[in-house]
């Protein structure tokens, strides 16, 4: 059954409303924490950003000022910064991909350890930048967001996967991945609208541990 009536939104209105809706529905966390599922506890931050997923981690680190673009081979400072950021990313990746046992407690017992370990890597990064006489003003010394607005870069990058997932599902090309009878529904195209945001939320919440 196709939807035919929509509360239409412009691109900007849709992006802003989607961010606000998801931030309320998912909740926002400025600091990393362990979000427990059945099998394991996943290091998470922001609007449900699963840091164990490499593309998500990269998007978050870009929000934090990391630069992963290939440096100019003739620019020594760019080469130093790139090397420092790549090493820091690898160190962070080791922390967020290790196994953490699930917990029924709201505040996971290892949250403090997770934050301490990640903060140390961020501090070490700034120290190394200082040793190479790179600019450190404004560089983060803790693994944390300052605001919802700061999360928007990673959010916009991450949601592309779910917008595509939603379009595929709406077209009827792929079944499954959604709960109940919705897994077999061919709704048809849905433009940027309040209705699409509600459907997007459904896609975002059927992550299969991949966000």
Chart the SSEs and their pairings.
Blueprint: H1 11-26, E1 29-36, E2 41-46, E3 49-50, H2 54-63, H3 76-97, H4 111-131, H5 152-171, H6 194-204
Describe this structure in words.
By secondary structure, the chain is mostly helical. The chain has 2 domains: 90 residues, no CATH class; 119 residues, no CATH class. Helix content is 47%, strand content 8%. It is built from 6 helices and 3 strands. The protein has a 3-stranded antiparallel beta sheet with strand order 1-2-3. It is globular, with a radius of gyration of 19 Å. The chain starts with 10 loop residues before the first helix and ends in a 7-residue tail after the last helix. 26% of the residues are buried.
Give the helix level as a range of percent: 40-55%
Task: Catalogue the unreliable spans.
Answer: none
Rg (CA only):
19 Å
Count the E strands: 3
Order of helices and strands: HEEEHHHHH
Strand content: 5-15%
Nearest-integer average pLDDT: 88
